[in-house]
Amino acid sequence: MRRHLMTTTAAMLLAMTGSAFADMNAAKKFLDAEIGDQSSLSRAEQEKEMQWFIDAAKPFAGMDIKVVSETITTHEYESKVLAKAFSEITGIKITHDLIGEGDVVEKLQTQMQSGENVYDAYVNDSDLIGTHWRYQQARSLTKWMAKEGKDVTNPGLDLDDFIGLKFTTAPDGDLYQLPDQQFANLYWFRYDWFNDEKNKADFKAKYGYDLGVPVNWSAYEDIAEFFTGREVNGKKVFGHMDYGKKDPSLGWRFTDAWLSMAGNGDKGLPNGLPVDEWGIKVNEKSQPVGSCVARGGDTNGPAAVYSIQKYLDWMKAYAPPAANGMNFSESGPVPGQGDIAQQMFTYTAFTADFVKKGLPVVNDDGTPKWRFAPSPHGVYWKEGMKLGYQDVGSWTLLKSTPDDRAKAAWLYAQFVVSKTVDVKKSHVGLTLIRDSSINHKSFTERAPKLGGLIEFYRSPARVQWSPTGTNIPDYPKLAQLWWQAIGDASSGAKTAQEAMDSLCAEQEKVLQRLERAGVQGEMGPKLAEEHDLEYWNKDAVSKGNLAPQLKIENEKEKPITVNYDELVKSWQK
Length: 573
What we know:
Protein name: Glycerol transport system substrate-binding protein
Shape: globular
Family: Belongs to the bacterial solute-binding protein 1 family.
Main location: periplasm
Signal peptide: 1-22
Distance between the termini: 76 Å
Number of helices: 23
Mean pLDDT: 94
Largest sheet: 7 strands, mixed
Helix content: 40-55%
Pfam families: SBP_bac_1
Strand content: 5-15%
């Protein structure tokens, strides 16, 4: 009888505690099979973090939570591997949908406009930070973590470890989005061709300076001219690569900081103030006051027009003929095919496409024949300006999501960016978000096969790469205008000046509608009076600013190059 009672008691205890044991068993199984030593935490610290997730998730066990992100390698890993592990460890069932980037924004807009809870959390670009702050339909994560979400906020989250929080912080000082993945657009070049003795000698003889990483657009243009039509390994190659199809992705090509590289806007990191790289100006209250030069903006100013004209000229003269009919995804892998000498910028998200064994741009030992480096800048660029773009997909919780569902989704969001899993996730997708992962020994070992990606992210140069900033009051409405305007220039229907004149006018129509509607309150647009370029340039200079700049008559400045290996050494110092 006593033995029977003991067995019954044991069974009752097992029933009460078995699920917790099962959860930690699931966690240990996940850590063994998936993480191993690819973590910035020790095994004991990993288990401690997993135990916190198990305990914090208990009130939400059995819930079905839906989240969404665009389809890239990092999010595929989350959807297929991490969501399953999280569900097994916590008992919260996660459905992580993968859809197109534009579809993510559409679902987000639907939820914002209808109040219907379409998804419990979104990974959407931090380019929407100005939108989220002004419409006030996204939860302030700063307030959420301190109040309603305090009990489900990981004490080991370590916000200071994230390298992109400036991008997701609004002018009110609050954090509205938590970075999940990020990647930069960087200059890409054939390191082997640039170090070929004959190429170096021929270039020096023709241009009078050393072949190297171009610091400015004048040098980039010379290098593009030098390689286009040159025979390398028995075939003629091209000195430049781009894309020009009239397609929504053409807009990304330019909103993703092409104008900033030319010198559009004002100094300021992560974005120019009061005029940003889109050419939109804000006042001291962060209210957008104009896009056109006539209102103090810079979307159609000399720097912007120069940037578009160079894009058109280089595409025609130095890129493969097929490039003009390509979109973003079609053009991305082309440099990996072995016919391109350099590209002004390519998204580092394509790194995986450039390091596959057997490609013409990869050595037999798996090391790349190419390198990433900082993008060159145009003649209007000044020290202190941003120099390129980073895509930062970030977790966003809308206020229309019920608290309990938001809490469960927030747990999942923190799980996929946790220190336990981030190193492994970073190796899979190469979209780095944490300092601890960037500096992990496994990336030191892998760096030689990633063409300078790790060196760049460990360098002081990385702060000059940033997403769209807070000057943009409604990213979805404004971003769609760009590809149509640039498409007109790319097709030859309009000149560069006409295209940018049209773009800034269309942007101001949106700003005017927002101002009249008053939907963004005191944070919304308040358009300025119109004056000429000289008036606004004088006004800017008097206040210690730059934009809009006056036209520089000789836009072909003295070309400058640097030796890539010396550049990397200077970063390490």
